[in-house]
Amino acid sequence: MKTQKLKYDGTFEGLLTAIFTVYEERLSSAHIIEERFFEPDFFSELITVFTDENKASRVWEGLKSFQQFRTSVYRSFLSGLPDKEVHILDAIQYVLKTKNDKDYGHPSVLKMAQITKQIGREKHRMEAFVRFKRTKDDIYVAIIEPDFNVLPLIAKHFKNRYADQQFVIYDRSRSYGIFYDLNSVQFIELDFNDTVLKEALHDEEKHYDEMWQDYFISTGIKSRINKKLHLRNVPKRYWKYLNEKKPL
Amino acid sequence: MNFERIREKLNILADAAKYDVSCSSSGSKRKNTTKGLGDSSGMGICHSYTEDGRCISLLKILLTNHCIFDCAYCVSRKSNDIKRAGFKIQEVVDLTINFYRRNYIEGLFLSSGIFSSPDYTMERLIAVAKKLRLEENFNGYIHLKSIPGCSDELMREAGLYADRLSINIEIPTVSGLKLLAPEKDHKDFIKPIEKVKNEIIQYQADKKLIKNTPVYAPAGQSTQMIVGATGESDKDIMYSAVHYYSTYKMKRVYYSGYVPVLHDERLPALGTEVPMLRENRLYQTDWLLRFYGFDVRELLNNQHPNLDIDIDPKLSWALRNMNLFPVDVNKADKRMLARIPGLGMLSVNKILNARKYRRLNWENLKAIGIAMNRAKYFIVCDSKDWEHKDLEPAHIKSMILQSSQSKYQKMYNKQLRLFN
């Protein structure tokens, strides 16, 4: 029997619509795949999914009684891992059939729980490691390169915390950012240029940057140094945007 | 603003404050409801970590390191020849706000040397917190030091603006305090602690009747003790810790291995190693008392005034009480499960959940993630395969030590050699 390849636009609503389609057309061996990774072949039937908010929200509502699992579906989607759709579809089918949303004996349910945990960690790290720089027009700008697409998850945290300051957090590896204009958070796309940013910085910025670096050094106790622990706490891949860890 | 001068002050006053280990920024309930700056309603965040592995979540500084006292263990003591500096109130406010806006910190930890009088010093600390809350609409975390000997009225006011208040006992015994800080009176430490405790009780009672009672020190009180400065035993330290937990409802007691910073005949010589392993054992004991249902007298008593250095306190307790083991993990109650060496509370809860569905065997226990190398001598499960022989405690200890590679091994080998 032919497998059915469902091609969707890469949005979360698109994925949910695809899942709806699987149920609607009673597909038995469906394979959901993002448009940009799709490669046609002779052995499978192609179905193009057109994102439909109505269908998407019906799937979302259908999972309402499994709150924790539902969060896990969204977070697994944000992971951007190549096989995410396979696990998500498999797990949703299992959970809707058996109602065992916490059965970690099931491989896809377990896998999703693991991905969710990883993302949660990355989200928490970004809440800690974002470093804003103040610009002349009083917008605080930060650049990040997280392992996963966590911007949608951290927006609320930063909005609550910096309710009275305009800020931009820009994800360089995914080329988009969030912008808070004192009212709401919007997703933005822009070309980021280091030299332009440097020129736009507020005169004070240099001083606070230096003082933070100084503070980082003077608050450490030399006779207790433990580099191994330090590296575990602040992995090297994050150093690029941490001003206190700026290579001298 | 003169940034050069502030930078210099920051270096001096952050350096002097770093021996305070408390850095928690959680447990507060201050929501940003007024579109102000900051929100400390959730869990704490460590924004960075020092190279010695401690979390940096607060801007930890002294208001000044001028001090009228001459406590032997303190870098800022009067007779020590160091650079002195003092912040203006506005400078601390600006630093806090600007660091906070850049997402460097969760809030402010403000301590101070005591200049002119305790009340005068405390007033200034409060002034900083007050300004941050009322003028800057700041909802981040504020941890203030209570100054020994300051008045009740000021402690009342401090709690209205701070999330946490703390006062460092430093020396666990009254005699030790006499020796190292002869000008300080033990009673001066207790008075502010007592006041804050009563205010918190009062707040909780009022809160039930009047919903908008102003919040008072929502993250409670903490204290800190220096370890290894006066030759006190682990028993002395933990018994006084228990006293502070029970009598004054402290949220935390911190233990800080003494870092020799000064030459003084009453103290360990400069260059003496920081007793980090001992500090670690004290924290393990602290956890056993707070989360595992141990009584301090079981772990430390006149027969055993000090903790074992080479094994953890729970294992050492178990080896002294072999008559209680082995425990059947499929039947034992939570209290007893928590007492098995190699099981943390996380594993205990997993066991309690999992055994509802099936009887657990070695495989299951391994999957749950318990430390088998220690636990296997103390449990039986759904398997015929268990340690049948009546092993002597000393034998078990040596087998466990052989089968494990402690990251501290280097240290205690060195420390043991002293006695050979």
General description of the model:
The complex is a heterodimer of chains A (248) and B (420). Chain A has two domains: 3-121, no CATH class; 130-245, no CATH class. Chain A starts with a strand and ends in a 15-residue tail after the last helix. In chain A, helix 5 runs parallel beside helix 6 (151-161). In chain A, strand 7 (176-180) and strand 8 form a beta hairpin. In chain A, the strands form two sheets. In chain A, strands 4-5-6-7-8 form a five-stranded mixed beta sheet, covered by helices on one side. In chain A, strands 2-1-3 form a three-stranded parallel beta sheet. Chain A has nine helices and eight strands. Chain A has helices spanning 12-24, 53-62, 67-78, 84-98, 107-129, 151-161, 194-200, 205-218, 227-233; strands spanning 3-8, 30-34, 44-48, 133-134, 139-144, 166-171, 176-180, 185-188. Chain A is an alpha/beta fold and 248 residues long. Chain A is elongated, with a radius of gyration of 22 Å. Chain B is α/β, with parallel strands linked by helices and 420 residues long. Chain B folds into two domains: 3-299, Aldolase class I (TIM Barrel), CATH 3.20.20; 313-417, no CATH class. Chain B is built from 16 helices and ten strands. In chain B, helix 2 packs across helix 3 (118-135), helix 4 packs across helix 6 and helix 7 packs parallel to helix 8 (276-291). Chains A and B meet through helix 5, strand 4, helix 6, helix 8 and helix 9 of A and helix 1, strand 1, strand 2 and helix 2 of B.
How much of the residues of chain A is beta strand, in percent?
15-25%
Number of helices of chain B: 16
Given as residue ranges, the uncertain stretches of chain A (5+ residues, pLDDT < 50) are none
What's the mean pLDDT score of chain B? 89
- Helix fraction of chain A, binned, reads 40-55%
Strand runs of chain A, count: 8
Placed side by side, the strands forming the largest sheet of chain A appear as 4-5-6-7-8
Class by alpha and beta content of chain B: alpha/beta
Domain Radical SAM core (chain B): 62-199
GO molecular function (chain B): catalytic activity; iron-sulfur cluster binding; metal ion binding
InterPro entries (chain B): Aldolase_TIM, DNA_rSAM_put, Endo/Exo/Phosphatase_dom_1, rSAM, rSAM_sf, RuvA_2-like
Keywords (chain B): Iron, Iron-sulfur, Metal-binding, S-adenosyl-L-methionine
